[in-house]
């Protein structure tokens, strides 16, 4: 029997996989142990095969990796086996199948309830997945702001409204201020009294003053200490602060979750571009599509994805073929352009700082008779910020065309440059306001700890500034669509002037549009503490912007000359949004922990800072709860907890490295299997000849 068994062994030794394994082991002297090890591993595999077969047999026929004829035979055998089962097992199997079918149908129906599902699919088919990612990102912000609004309204606004109108046998509990001068408690909102002109209402609507200042939109409305509903006491200051922490934590976790999903897709694509290309060509089509329109949209989506891949490969090849002189020219040009960008950023920051200081110093010195001039001076920082946000991205989008980057990196770099303009503008404005609120000279701040004469309720004033920034940003977006995009489309279509034709149809700039909504979302995160209903305004704003941008895209824009991939764009959009959220933590944390709270309005009137409500609530709780919380905050708990976290982190890192090695080995195995198949095909062809 040895001659019959030796031939297959010698034949298997000629396989590329076996030769590669021998080379890795260091030579042919270990051939026999290797073969024995291979036989042992085959024996283990043979013993494990029945277990895997039993697991596959328990699965439904349509989920097994076999051909259709085998699936039919498997289904018939499974149906025949059910006849010999007991009634209990038959009922369990039938119930399990019915439950799975019901869940599948519910999941299919729920997909039709997704907001703007058809619109986004249509945009994806006509303009590619890069632009589609922008509208999906906009939908995410609509849902996020709506949930933040529900959170703030349920725990802050609704209990206040219920108590003020006496619903459900509710009453309001006021606590008289202690050790506070009476002069600090004077706050007279500028609400409209009597008959006023329509212009006054319009001014109040744009600035958040007048009749809006005394509504539940701003912080000053919530000047109660507790709400009694029947026999239950509702601590409004604690609920206000915890709701703020909750919406920030919710935003952070939701963005992280979506970022991880995008990071996985981006990692898979970057790991092996050829594999991604093969997946699109051989496995990208959805054979469940029956509608011709849906099929056309899917075809266009795949076409744009392949076009993006080929465009990026072409640019990479072009970069690899550059000579030294061309590289020096491009790098010198990039350095020069970056110097221009830094100069533009510095000019924007300085201009906003000077304008804000001028507005703060002169807005109250103008005679009230010149109401229009006073209004202009008050809104001057918002106007300059909006102008910088509008002009800056246009200059950056023009300059980056000369730097010769890939489309994906071009979007990332433009976004980073614009982030410094938009988010730093908010920081300069807040810094100027806080310098006027807390850094006052002589004895202005001595009785109350802040400039009570100029800002008796400074939280509402900050909320009004955030409200004005959001309203002006929305007005600018609508104005650009109505007075820039559509007239440009009409001129290019009906005017044959060379200058007009040189401008051409507008391309949908993803970076600029993404920065618009990230800027507005950062304003919303900062302003929600000072204006609890600001997320509702943001939800309505983004809802309208979706349709405005859709109309502008379809009727005035042309497809991008260089398509953008959605996987990298989605991930980077969320990273920039996360940067905006982290930057929003800084002014909010400073306002809550450092700046003295207003003594004339708001739920924190009886506390030096907003944060003091936390230790005050803990001290009023039971002794057991106090000991538990103090124990968690002590070093005896923190040090072991930190050590355990480090151990878990090291374990996860080691596990990730092990998985990475397994993935690399599986990829090598796939390559070797393909070589073995080619070798066997050649041997079969030689044997047939």
UniProtKB/TrEMBL annotation:
What the entry lists under InterPro entries is as follows: TMC, TMC_dom
User: Where do the coiled-coil regions begin and end?
Assistant: none
Q: What spans are recorded as compositionally biased (Basic and acidic residues)?
A: 52-62, 69-81
Record region (Disordered): 1-81
Arranged from A to Z, the UniProt key words for this protein are: Membrane, Transmembrane, Transmembrane helix
Q: Which residues cross the membrane?
A: 140-162, 238-256, 331-353, 379-402, 414-434, 466-484, 571-590, 628-653
* GO molecular function terms noted in the UniProt entry: mechanosensitive monoatomic ion channel activity
Q: Topologically, how does it sit relative to the membrane?
A: Multi-pass membrane protein
Report the GO terms under cellular component: plasma membrane
Family, according to the entry, reads as follows: Belongs to the TMC family.
The protein here is known as Transmembrane channel-like protein
Look up and give the organism this protein is from: Urocynchramus pylzowi
């Amino acid at each position: 029997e040895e001659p019959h068994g030796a031939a297959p062994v010698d034949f298997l030794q000629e396989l590329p996989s076996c030769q590669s394994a021998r080379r890795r082991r260091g030579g042919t002297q270990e051939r026999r142990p290797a073969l024995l090890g291979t036989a042992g591993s085959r024996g283990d595999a043979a013993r494990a095969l029945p277990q895997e077969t039993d697991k596959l047999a328990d699965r439904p026929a349509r989920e097994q990796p076999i051909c259709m004829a085998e699936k039919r035979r498997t289904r018939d055998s499974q149906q025949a086996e059910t006849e010999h089962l007991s009634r209990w097992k038959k009922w369990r199997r039938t119930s399990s199948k019915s439950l799975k079918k019901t869940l599948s149908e519910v999941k299919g129906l729920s997909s039709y309830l997704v907001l703007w599902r058809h619109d986004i699919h249509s945009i994806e088919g006509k303009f590619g997945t890069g632009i589609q990612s922008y509208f999906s990102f906009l939908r995410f912000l609509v849902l996020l702001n709506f949930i933040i609004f529900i959170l703030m309204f349920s725990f802050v606004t609704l209990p206040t409204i219920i108590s003020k109108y006496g619903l459900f046998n509710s009453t309001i509990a006021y606590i008289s201020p202690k050790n506070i001068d009476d002069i600090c408690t004077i706050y007279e909102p500028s609400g409209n009294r009597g008959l006023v002109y329509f212009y006054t209402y319009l001014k109040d609507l744009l600035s958040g003053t007048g009749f809006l200042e005394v509504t539940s939109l701003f912080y000053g409305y919530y000047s109660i200490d507790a709400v009694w509903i029947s026999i239950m006491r509702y601590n409004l200051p604690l609920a206000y602060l915890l709701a703020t922490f909750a919406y920030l934590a919710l935003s952070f976790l939701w963005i992280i979750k979506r970022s991880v999903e995008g990071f996985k897709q981006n990692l898979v694509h970057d790991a092996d571009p050829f594999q991604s290309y093969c997946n699109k060509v051989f496995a990208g089509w959805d054979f469940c599509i029956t509608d011709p329109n849906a099929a056309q949209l899917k075809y266009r989506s795949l076409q744009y994805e392949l076009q993006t891949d080929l465009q990026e490969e072409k640019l990479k090849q072009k970069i690899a073929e550059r000579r030294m002189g061309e590289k020096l020219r491009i790098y010198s040009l990039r350095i020069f352009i970056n110097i221009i960008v830094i100069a533009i950023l510095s000019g924007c920051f300085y201009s906003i700082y000077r304008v804000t200081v001028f507005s703060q110093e002169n807005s109250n010195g103008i005679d009230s008779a010149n109401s229009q001039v006073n209004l202009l001076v008050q809104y001057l920082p918002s106007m300059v910020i909006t102008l910088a946000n509008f002009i800056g991205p246009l200059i950056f989008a023009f300059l980056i065309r000369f730097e010769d980057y890939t489309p994906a990196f071009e979007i990332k770099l433009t976004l980073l440059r614009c982030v410094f303009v938009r988010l730093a503008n908010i920081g300069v404005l807040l810094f100027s306001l806080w310098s006027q609120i807390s850094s006052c000279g002589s004895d202005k701040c001595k009785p109350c700890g802040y400039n009570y004469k100029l800002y008796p309720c400074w939280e509402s004033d900050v909320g009004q500034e955030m409200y004005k920034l959001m309203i002006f940003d929305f007005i600018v977006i609508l104005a650009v669509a109505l007075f820039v995009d559509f007239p440009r489309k009409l001129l290019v279509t009906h005017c044959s002037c060379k200058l007009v034709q040189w401008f051409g149809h507008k391309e949908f700039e993803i970076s600029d549009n993404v920065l618009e909504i990230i800027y507005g979302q950062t304003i919303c995160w900062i302003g929600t503490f000072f204006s609890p209903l600001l997320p509702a305004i943001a939800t309505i704003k983004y809802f309208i912007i979706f349709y405005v941008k859709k109309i502008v895209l379809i009727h005035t824009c042309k497809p991008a000359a260089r398509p953008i991939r959605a996987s990298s764009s989605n991930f980077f959009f969320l990273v920039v949004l996360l940067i905006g959220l982290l930057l929003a933590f800084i002014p909010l944390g400073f306002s809550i922990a450092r700046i003295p709270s207003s003594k004339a309005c708001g739920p924190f009137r009886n506390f030096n800072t907003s944060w003091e409500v936390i230790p005050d609530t803990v001290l009023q709780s039971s002794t057991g709860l106090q000991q538990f919380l103090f124990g968690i905050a002590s070093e005896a708990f923190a040090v072991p907890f930190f050590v355990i976290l480090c151990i878990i982190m090291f374990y996860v890192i080691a596990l990730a490295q092990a998985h990475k090695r397994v993935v690399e080995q599986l990829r090598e195995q796939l390559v070797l299997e393909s070589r073995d198949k080619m070798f066997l095909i050649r041997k079969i062809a030689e044997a047939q000849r």
